[in-house]
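Sequence decides. Consider this:

===
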Amino acid sequence: MITSANSIVSVLFFPPFDIPNKAAFVSGFSEFTRIFDADPMILPIGNAPPGVPRIVLKKRDGSYACEIALDRLSFTYADTINCKRSLEALYPEYRGHLQFVVEAALAGIGSPVIRMGFVTRHLLELGAGANEWIRRWFLRADRLPGEAFETHVNVLHRLDLESFPVNRWIKIRSLRDQQHPERDPAALLEIDINTLPEHTGPYDRTALLAFYLEGFARAEEELKACLAEVTEP
């Protein structure tokens, strides 16, 4: 099995707030973070739901993006150029950019951060038989006879990081080959850690960076434990 980080997403949630001067915000945000070199998009959206992005900033190769909606900011790394790096190898670079994104958000969005989320997605390249593999390791295949076209397994736990009570989702699903849909050569493993809705902030810079560091450590631990359990000896 070949395992690589498909994406990392850090989310800051805040009470709905419409940034009044979006052009000035984009200029200051881009200059401070120094990573988004593609043309920014300021979307003239009126009555769309709060979670729909109003501002989108990207790196030219698409590997990094930041979306700002009325109630959240999402900072994403995506493996758009097929680097296939491990989470451990990738995270120091990502966290270096994340620190600037957090500081720019706190300075420019005029609304307190009340919740946080951290999501990592990992590509598991199996070669073939992803549905069978998921059913064999996570389910009782004899209870679900027949060949599955798709398999999804989602499990939620409530637990404590060092400083934060959180929800922790582990989700795994099979992936089909886009060109040859009869083949299922890979699976996607998602680890989603977020602070509880009943434990709202506000959170300052120190708390935000502590959460993402603890979230990364937990995600790395969960990934290693999961793969240790399911890898053939």
